[in-house]
TrEMBL record:
UniProt-listed Gene3D superfamilies: Heterotetrameric sarcosine oxidase, Probable tRNA modification gtpase trme, domain 1
Protein name: Sarcosine oxidase subunit gamma
Record SUPFAM superfamilies: Folate-binding domain (SSF103025)
Amino acid sequence: MSKERVRMSELGNLASEGYVSVVDAPPLGMVTLRCRDDAALAAALEGVGLTRPAPRGRSVTERGEVLWMSPDELLLLLPPEELARTIERLGEALDGVPALLVDVSDARVVFRLIGAGAGEVLAKISPALPLLQGEVRRSRIGQIAAAFWQSGDAEMTVICFRSVAGYARDLLCYAARRGSQIEPV
């Protein structure tokens, strides 16, 4: 049995390096934004340097990322230092428009799967793969709700509730352990 190299991550959680590395992402500002007025929403996002993604997609700008979660829900991923100001500016732009802006940064945790087999690791624990390029999936990993997408050539990003972060980390690390690669038949 091969030994896994285990280290402490930036957030103090164990991270492992199997055939795919599972690491905690740096802290992110996260905002749930719900709005059914497409024109007002697009204008508000543009005003803070973000763009609305296509259904089931993501858009990335210099200011942050926007993930499509449902027809009237987006998840904004922002630098933590920009969070309060962005929420304030979006609130001003959507004043008078039925909308919901909620800081969910403390309620979520983000993991990165890094390595050529990152998609395979998720395929072992989620019914929702394969992903199309640029697609965001809102599904489950194991027994918990999660969202995930391909964030690089050999990288996947997973977001889940912080309350189940230990389970998610253990599940991802177990699926990524050395020797567990799926062999072609």
